[in-house]
Amino acid sequence: MNFSQSARGSSLRRGVRSPGGFYGWWVLAMAVVIFAWTSIGQTQGFSVLLLPLTEQMDFTSRDVSLIFFVGAFGGAFLMPVVGRLMDARGTRHMLIASTIAYALAFCVLALIANKLVAILALLAVRLIGSIVLNLGATVLVSLWFTRRRGLALGVLMGSGSALLSLLAYSLSVQIERFGIVTGFLVLAVLACVVLLPVLIWGVVDHPGEIGQYPDGEVPAGEHEPEGPVREELTGATAREAYRTGFAWVITCGAGLIALATTGYLFHQAFIFIEQGDSAVDAARNLLPQMIGNGVCIFIFSSLVDRHRMRWIVPVAMAQVVFTMWLGFHLDVMNSLWLFGIFFGMTSGVFFGYAQAALPKYFGTKHVGEIRGMFGAITMATAAFGPIVFEVFQENSATVLILITAGAAVPIAIASIVIRWPKESYMPPVLGTSGLPAVGCGEIA
Description:
Elements: E1 2-5, H1 24-36, H2 43-56, H3 61-89, H4 91-111, H5 115-144, H6 149-178, H7 180-202, E2 229-232, H8 238-241, H9 245-266, H10 268-274, H11 279-284, H12 286-304, H13 312-327, H14 330-333, H15 336-362, H16 367-383, H17 385-393, H18 397-417
Antiparallel strand pairs: 1-2
């Protein structure tokens, strides 16, 4: 990545965001908060809202399921567009506009009785939460970190997932005590007084806007900036990235895992009951799943910073097949907690790798568009999970496991056959604070 000093040094905004410490860690903390707010539009949020919407508002369970399904496919088409807009217009502006719309949608759900309007508002919540906020948080972190990008994304997804689950649980308690209308109003107020100020006065799109560099490290041959620096981002477009076998293998692998895990989760209570457990056991199993997912995302995102990990795809494909088999033979492990952790690891291992590998191999100039394409395909694939499970599970779980294996094997073989991106030289970074200089090792 190349940088040149801007002549507009006097225009640097002084204050909390001025140089004097690397501001990227603050951006990471704010991105965690943004990511947590995706909860309401994700599966966790809809699972909390399903019963209150049918009992306290004029919704049926079919209405909510249809909104979730349409949101998944609508998101699949919109995600690349949103990512392209973030690349062109800036992530911060997109997030601010989306948060205002988010708050308005909550107000509409709470105050307007018209069912059609309420359905459109709930669809807006689904799209904004699962697409714009989710994509915006990861794009921000990708732009602020280069050499520590995997570590930062691991912190984002791990901490964000924990906060996401906590927010969903808090919403369920709020609704149970005060009703869903009050719950929606509280969400609208919190979006305005917590999330919106963070975006307006806290978030910065690029390090160069406040005279900093990614990772807080000054490139060799440059000097400490006294004002904003103009950032010349490099990287492939989504079209160029998806002309490579690597991008398709990673995306297809993620799509298969998303389909399998989403399908199983959707029917988890029924599957548990069939094997002698209860719906309560299925609900409790979400906690170890979150732990396994968050820990693996953190670990494997961090490993991408220093390792190529060509073995990750075959291992992940074997893992998803074994997890599906284990899910229908819970007595083998004799511990629902261990199964929950292993189930969470199934998605955490691969998605932890993928989210850090895509910007590392294809650059950050079009990171929003590339992440949008990746998210669109995985989201559309995941939407079929519940349908596939419902069709095949009635006949035989063995058939479902064999179908999963039949899809996993070609993906694993393809990952071995294809040519992976090569390492390229990156100019060394001058040592700071007594630390040695850092040499090459970035993968373009």
